[in-house]
Amino acid sequence: MIRISVSIAILSVLYAAVGHGQEKKIVMTHVKYDGLKQEVLKHRGTVIVVDFWATWCPSCMEAFPKFIEYQRKYQDKGLVVIAVSLDSVEKEGAVDRANKFLTKNNSPLRNLLLDEPSELLEKQFNFVSLPFYYIFDRQGKWVRFRAADYKDGVPYEELEKIVVQMLSEK
Question: What is the mean pLDDT of residues 39-52?
Fold first, then answer.
């Protein structure tokens, strides 16, 4: 009987140590524009997708798993996906909602929170509305996809084709 109790106790400790059933909490790194620029430059020589999103954008949240899939599917070929939340740091609960969303999706991406005013987004990124994406090739040339440029939303199949094409170029 003692053996069984000891075995159960050991299994309980192992089960708890593994953290079975617990999600790894994901927290975004706060950056300013220069920090985002440095993050992109740090990955020069790879193909980079920068996904600008927010929890208040349903189509962004719907598309987010596609970018997790792209990262997993193409990382060995040189793809880096950087997810940049535009949730407001001043709006109560917004950052927490974004972190919970990332945790729920078990995001393996580089997760950033861009802490800048909307005027800077308009100026630096020609931001009109979400979602929008920049794809950088290995030399740093970029292609932009903005929902505002397409009648039926961002053509994700076309976006993926461009990623694959850029990955094939050395």
Answer: 96
Q: Is the dihedral of CA 116, 119, 123, 127 positive or negative?
A: positive
What range does the domain containing 68 cover? Answer: 22-168
Edge-first strand order for the sheet with 142-146 is 29-31, 110-114, 79-85, 47-53, 132-136, 142-146
CATH number of the domain that residue 140 is part of:
3.40.30.10
The contacts of residue 53 (CB under 8 Å, 6+ apart) are 60, 61, 63, 64, 83, 84, 85, 86, 130, 131
CA 17 vs CA 3, 6, 8, 9, 169: distances in Å: 21, 16, 14, 12, 44
The per-residue pLDDT for 13 is 41
pTM for this predicted structure? 0.83
What pLDDT is stored for residue 5 in this prediction? 45
CA distance 8 to 80: 44
How many folded domains does the chain comprise? 1
* Mean pLDDT computed over 27-40: 94
Q: Is residue 136 scored above 90 in pLDDT?
A: yes
